[in-house]
Amino acid sequence: MELALAPLLEEAGAEVDVIDIDEYPLLEKDYGEYVPVLLHDKNELCHFVLDVRKVRDYLGDFR
């Protein structure tokens, strides 16, 4: 997902922090079965596969 996300981030001038949820027990508990997962704050944008349309729309809301 990270590689597929890169062009959208560049297009929007946005950045992403990649974390290993194994290091965060609460995240592991909440998202362990849904990795990879793309979140912004508490908003889950997608998991397993990048939802390009949803992410592009979401990023557009911040322009």
Any key phrases for this structure?
elongated; Glutaredoxin; alpha+beta
- Helix run count: 3
Major pleated sheet: 2 strands, antiparallel
What is the β-strand count? 2
Gyration radius, rounded? 12 Å
At the fourth CATH level, what is the homologous superfamily?
Glutaredoxin
Q: Quote the distance from N terminus to C terminus.
A: 23 Å
Map the helices and strands.
Elements: H1 2-12, H2 25-31, E1 37-40, E2 43-47, H3 52-60
Antiparallel strand pairs: 1-2
What does this structure look like?
The protein has three helices and two strands. With 63 residues, it is of the alpha+beta class. It has a single domain, classed as Glutaredoxin, CATH 3.40.30.10. A hairpin with a 2-residue loop joins strand 1 and strand 2 (43-47). Helix 1 (2-12) runs parallel beside helix 3 (52-60). The longest helix is centred in the first third of the chain and has 11 residues, at 2-12. The two termini are 23 Å apart.
What is the structure about, briefly put?
The protein has three helices and two strands; from the N terminus they run ααββα.
